[in-house]
Each structure stands twice: as structure tokens, then as C-alpha cells.
Amino acid sequence: MSFNQYYSIDSLVEAGRQAAADKEIVSFDLFDTLVIRRVHDPDLIKLPVARYISALAKSFGITIGWRQVQQIRD
Fold it and tell me: Which residues share a beta bridge with 38?
């Protein structure tokens, strides 16, 4: 398995788009793997991210509440 390092969000997103171009479903664990949290209590970031994911899903016509996102994550 090879690994790549990305030093900007833009380059990471572009690489992800290229890798996912021919895929039907793409899944990854964002917490503690892709994002380094600069907060004392990492659980504090989960609620805002769940709300963001819910809003992003809605923009694609997918209805899922932030509580359900949080429940799936936990």
C-alpha cells in the first residue's frame, strides 16, 4: 500500500475526486485520520461536523438530520 501526503485541502480534494471518479460509493473516516483537531476535547467538533454533513447532504437532495449523522458516526 502506498501513501501520499497533501499539504493543502485543495490538493487533497482534487486527488480524492480523481480517485473516486469511477466509483459508485466512497467512504472514509474523517475523524482523527484526515483531520488533526486543534481542540482539547475532540468530541466538541463532532456536532458542528454532523450539522455540516447534514446540510451538504441536503444540497444533494439527501435528507438526513444531524442527529442521525451523529448516531451513525457513534
Answer: none
Nearest-angstrom CA–CA distance, 19 and 13: 10
Q: State how far the alpha carbon of 72 is from the alpha carbons of 3, 7, 60, 64, in Å.
A: 27, 29, 19, 11
Q: What is the pLDDT of residues 5-50, one digit of tens each?
A: 888 889 988 998 998 999 998 887 666 565 666 677 878 888 999 9
β-partners of residue 35 are 31
Per-domain residue ranges of the chain: 9-73
Do the Cβ atoms of 49 and 29 come closer than 8 Å?
Answer: no
